[in-house]
């Protein structure tokens, strides 16, 4: 199997792969607490694992992950007041994305996919991509294309039903819950301790955000729903569904005919 | 009835209201195409109308709306490539929010609500608020509180069912659709021409974003769902539900006991 | 009469107007105290009113006003320490102008006029325009033209004499004075209460600026000269002179032969 | 006579002078064309000469001049399209001022005067000072005071009349004219060649600014009025008047009782 | 042995370690070509390996590495024009460092060491640290301490002589040379292919930098000196010396008595 | 001899010189303490003197020096905590360089040399040059070339041996030492007082930087090595060697054949 990690290629290999038209995937995550039962890196490890499998499927390359992300929000990640969560300012995040894309384009890369594993990153990725495309246009590069996706958006209804039956709480509160924990159990079981899962109902929030956060609205675990039902088998299923879905979708997304 | 618009107060009136503890609402919108049947200002006019009614209910003040917003995204607003849509860079938007909040705090205001009418603004409002609170902390102001909300999050299931029956397409594609058009028909009927509504099924998008946008994915109208069923009566209902919901929620949000 | 407000057009109307070569006027103001006798929005309402009349005269369009401006200075606006005055940092103001011009140019607009109603904005408008023209050049747009004007610069000597006789204090201290108050009395009389005008001689300042401001140098009213002699009739005259002067000037300014 | 130039002091001398409460003057200029008869540095040399004399009078210190300024504007400096004129972006200028003031405050300086010699700098100096004072406040420094002045504002009516009789064209068009040329003839005669003065009436401009500039509006010389009547004697007079005026004014400006 | 990787801790473990006063090391590297014989990640992997061993020695923690660094310079890294090298703008790099330090300080961390593996990062780390300390001061945190080091500065003369005898070319041209290759052979032998080492004399450069780079000054390999003599044994030695030197030095650096 | 100072040329002279292809040298320094025996401007005066002599040799021009530089670091300049040292933030420094280069390029200049006199500036000059070249490329200017050099890098081994015999401490600690003091004694003897030289061994530092600085590591003089052996004769020699070396090097650097 061809290597996929850019960082592990020597430059002549990379240069050849780029000349051959390789697409580049960039996992984008965060250093963020995910409850007492799990390490703080699932938002990095999960999109990295998915990116590497997708790259293997479609002949792509994986750039080093962005391991620090935008500030955790209470209704999607528990809040940025929690210990361990280590985030960038919005403008810093935007500029990191812009800079990395600008460099890849300088190498000759023309198709990049940002594989997001941290909900709060999305709009800053969007702005970073927009600025990169603007600057590339100034440099005379007009055929650079970029996809932004979040891997959970590729988990289909059938899979959700298979895992959650009727109790799917929505991705919004899946922070440190069944989805992430199952994937971690499958991929990095030594970073999960199911004995420490705190079983509680999904967090409930009002239809607005209050700043500074009211810490009492986040469950004491830091998770927004319980991971009790997570299993490595679910993780394997979720991984397969995500990888297949993304592999297929990128074929369409970057189809030159579209 | 007490005046609510800050811009229409003389400064001694404003100063007194602030000393009395008035909360300030800031409508945040965009200049964005909303289809051939409607003006480009619903994202400003609707949160403004709601803010003024909420302010009247709870004794608040309304600051001048932020009338330019963040870039329209294809899956929520049709895309920023469309004519008329006039947007700010992410960092500009962040800094506008930060600056205005910093000034309100200087006046003595301690409770502000950003009433959002343009989906894409949300995360940039969040960052602007975060930076403002950080700077205010540096200035020794530690009791400044801010709520960010989007008015459609206060439309309850009952109302949705009353209007859409079983066909609610989700807020995601409600750009230029029944919600906004009904509200505009009720509030600013001269800015809507129902004869020009293009009736088409809700736009369908893949589970990722591609940049630059593929224009063919946005319906030619620029709307993401059809406004054909919009009526002024629905608008009246939606307005009432939003205003009541927000008025109540802000009482809780800013309850000193929380 | 053709519509002039961009925000009230549907996008196909706007797109057509731009294709037809319409010039765009952007009123630029501030949220700034203007004395106990007047609302805090004259710097927005006056250039807006003028812009709309000029647009009607010459077939132009009016973009939504920039309603927050640069920090009030003591010798021209009383100072930014005063309650109600709500200002942007210089760099924020610059970037807002740059962004909006960039977007208008993307639509195809090639002639824009910034109609300023707040003295302190001028140099930041200049820089915003300079940055926009620079970036547009990078994008291959080399025919974008922009005029910056302040409406009071179009009040001629005859009009000044008709209103002030020999007592014209200079525009520098006309903050909240006869000019603005007369225009507001004509255009928005419900936002003026002449009973609350504080009659005092024009403020006198040393030939330098001291920071932080010495508050005692600003009259307690916040105005820099007395509005006592303001009348709606003067306002009507001033409006007519400004509108005529600007309408004529823009014909010359944008004459393709120059 | 005590030394005045900070750059020529050894640090223990400087530290002592700061402990003794010395005020610091910072000349602020530009590298800007000033016509075919004069070097491009009058905006630096003139405020520097004035600052040193004022410092000698009042026991102050002079920091190295800011030798690059904001972009030359057509109606005050001929325009930034002219060869030789070398300017900073607005935000760069703002940050230079902020940084230098922050450093002086760190040394213990509490009173600074920016002595401006380039009209276009003014508002960017203002913003730089505002940001510096804001940051110093965050650092717990609340007694930092700053004066911004332009030296020509200290030329009184008597002097104007003595030099220009009834032909004073206004400072606005005094770019490369009698004021600057006379001062340079007095202070740096080898940098002036009166044989190359181009005698033309003062430039006339419309009451607005057009961007990009229309080069034909600037006299071919680059000056906005004629320096033909400039003399070293006038320069001596102007220098004396400015130095005396500023020396006196700063006593008042920084009077602890105000 | 205690865990050292922050990313692999659950938040309660991390919070406890921080309360116990743990020092945090942040490896800082780059994605940069290192010749045809080696992967592009030694600047990340080497300081990471060193940081983890130092952390194990002294009870510290290791934060996720900064994997993108400042632009490669020709005389230290071959130049930023080379394929694969993927760098951040200076200001982006500064802000990433500032943001991460600010967050660690929010968690309660008070001692951080930046372990640099990419020469060009140094001054941007310095500025990032300076800005972080400034902002922390504004937040009332005055006891935050930070060390910046580059691991090769801990290779002593004895070790240099043991490895290079009399042919030490200086760290300046050790890009992709014996130092880095030996360390990689010891730590990650599968990422090195000694058969592809190009043997050439150390690059020679003039005593200045020319921009844009003259590509012919960089050896075709992209390395600045030959790795031919690299061995895993040297790598083991270098690692031990660096780890011991840094472990000892940090004891002194953070000695509360200093 | 042709004039070399841009600031002392009238614009038509400058424009002609640029049309004739003149190279421009920009001295870059700092306002930084250099011990009790010397003024705080050697980092400006020395590269200025060198630049003017080089310019005379090769027909170049000298732009006004950048007189404020990046923050003094303890191991190269004593540290930025010392009184008198007055520094810019990194991003400010970067932008000043970018702006000035952009302007020179607008005039038609295509070859610029930054002659650095303050060690800490180097990487920020590099980034400023990189940004300028990027922006110039966007403007269609692709033949702009820039050299960055530090003058001490042109002092050859022979000269070092002639001055220091076997005691050369390395440029790193030559802050306020024999090099700079000798050059100042030769060029500006009134700014040096040899009686105040503090004779101490070269400062010794650990192989890392600690922030905030530990002030006790910097000798009380602020110098990093003793200037006791400095003489005007050494200064004359050093100046001649630097000027000759740089004059020759620039011929090669800008050789169109390279």
From TrEMBL, chains A, B, C, D, E, F:
Q: Which domain of life is it from?
A: Bacteria
Cofactors that this protein relies on: Zn(2+)
Q: What is the lineage of its organism?
A: Bacteria, Pseudomonadati, Pseudomonadota, Alphaproteobacteria, Rhodobacterales
What GO molecular-function term can you cite, just one?
A: hydrolase activity, acting on carbon-nitrogen (but not peptide) bonds, in linear amides
Task: State the InterPro entries in the record.
Answer: Creatininase, Creatininase-like_sf, Creatininase/forma_Hydrolase
Under NCBIfam families, the record lists: creatininase (TIGR04448)
Q: Report the Gene3D superfamilies cross-referenced here.
A: Creatininase (3.40.50.10310)
Q: Which PANTHER family match?
A: 2-AMINO-5-FORMYLAMINO-6-RIBOSYLAMINOPYRIMIDIN-4(3H)-ONE 5'-MONOPHOSPHATE DEFORMYLASE, 3-DEHYDRO-SCYLLO-INOSOSE HYDROLASE
The biological process GO terms on file are: creatine biosynthetic process; creatinine catabolic process; riboflavin biosynthetic process
Q: What is the protein's given name? A: Creatinine amidohydrolase
Homology family: Belongs to the creatininase superfamily.
Cite the entry's keywords alphabetically. Hydrolase, Metal-binding, Zinc
């Amino acid at each position: 199997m061809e290597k996929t990690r850019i960082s592990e290629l020597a430059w002549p290999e990379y240069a050849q792969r780029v000349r051959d038209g390789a697409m580049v995937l960039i996992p984008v995550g965060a250093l963020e607490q995910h409850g007492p039962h799990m390490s703080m890196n699932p938002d990095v490890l999960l999109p990295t694992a998915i990116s590497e499998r997708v790259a293997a499927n479609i002949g792509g390359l994986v750039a080093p992950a962005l391991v620090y992300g935008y500030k955790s929000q209470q209704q999607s990640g528990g809040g940025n007041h929690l210990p361990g969560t280590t985030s960038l300012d919005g403008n810093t995040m935007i500029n990191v994305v812009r800079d990395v894309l600008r460099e890849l384009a300088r190498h000759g890369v023309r198709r990049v996919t940002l594989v997001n594993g941290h909900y709060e990153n999305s709009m800053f990725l969007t702005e970073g991509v927009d600025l990169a495309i603007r600057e590339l246009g100034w440099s005379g590069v007009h055929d650079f294309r970029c996809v932004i996706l979040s891997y959970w958006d590729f988990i289909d209804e059938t899979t959700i039903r298979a895992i959650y039956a009727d109790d799917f709480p929505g991705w919004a509160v899946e922070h440190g819950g069944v989805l992430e924990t199952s994937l971690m159990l499958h991929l990095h079981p030594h970073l999960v301790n199911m004995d420490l899962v705190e079983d509680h109902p999904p967090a409930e929030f009002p239809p607005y955000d209050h700043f500074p956060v009211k810490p009492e609205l986040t469950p004491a675990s830091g998770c927004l729903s319980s991971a009790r039902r997570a299993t490595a088998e679910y993780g394997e299923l979720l991984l397969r569904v995500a990888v297949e879905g993304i592999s297929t979708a990128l074929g369409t997304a970057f189809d030159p005919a579209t």
